[in-house]
Amino acid sequence: MTRAALPQPLRPRALAPGDLVVIASLSGPLDAGHVPGLEQAVAVLERMGFRVRLAPLLEAGRHHWWSAAQPADIAEELNALLRDPEVRAIIAHDGGHTALGYLDLIDVEAITADPKPILGYSDISLLHLVLYARTGLVGFHADLATPGLGGHWQAAPAARQAELEKLYSTLLTGPEAIGALPATSSWECWRAGRTEGRLIGGLTNRIVLAQATRYALPLEWFDGTVLFWEEAGGHASHVWSYLQVLRHSGILDRISGMIVGVPHEIDGLGGPDASPTLPEIVLDVLGDRDIPVLGNVEFGHAGPNLPMPVGIRVALDAQQRTLSLLEPAVRAAHGGEPVG
């Protein structure tokens, strides 16, 4: 494909009961205190019907600086998983600050030969965006293993846990479009409107960083897309600045809609000193761009994640507070590409 040509989504093969899912340290290390969360994540995946294996670098106490290992070692392990036909999905143990160090070491030929779901958010957003840019791979912006499946999921009400397990299982195993994601009362219409388009996004600062590399998505690929993003930590001014970068780059002029995740531990939002709220920041940067904006949706650092498959066509109705996946994220185990 040429740089400007919009790729056909490269969908992984649908998982089946008993398939092997590997939890791997794709970025940050495993602290000894988080081992119980990892064990809980394994139990969740097994309850979904999958076999689970831990990758060798996922060892409590192993680390290099802020990472699980040297970037080259992480890439070597990831590539081995991508090449192993027994491995049918890879879920990141946690986020961190390492993916930038091995973006150029990933075996993209292994991905195109046998695409597999890679699940995670935060730093893993870089993998989703870059691999989509390089291969068209559908990235699963979804919960991490240890802080997500083994953490936030465990703190959620039992009914919500069951809902998420069914949703994730259906997303990974069913070669049909899921349709409407389960909305909650937290969803807010920040600017009314309806649109359809491909879903692109992730952690805001990682979107900006990905676009600064040679693996950036061509600007034309944002035409008509629905941009989803969330941010965690830092200050409200940082969020405003990242959005300004997206404005200056021309991305905000091309998208047809926006979905904003629940903010997490961001200082300076809506405080007593007349600090702006997140909706005010978003609408300030958007200006007169008349696109629908749905806010406070459950994906990212703030809690259990609704899955947001990168590269899949969605329908957004901000006023009705609905978001629907119009295409499947996986293809049938046998046969050609599914029809959404």
TrEMBL record:
LD-carboxypeptidase C-terminal domain segment(s): 196-316
Keywords from the named record: Hydrolase
Domain of life: Bacteria
Domain LD-carboxypeptidase N-terminal: 21-142
InterPro entries: Carboxypeptidase_A_C_sf, Class_I_gatase-like, LdcA_N, Peptidase_S66_N, Peptidase_S66C, S66_fam
Assigned protein family: Belongs to the peptidase S66 family.
Protein name listed in UniProt: LD-carboxypeptidase
Source taxonomy: Bacteria, Bacillati, Actinomycetota, Actinomycetes, Kitasatosporales
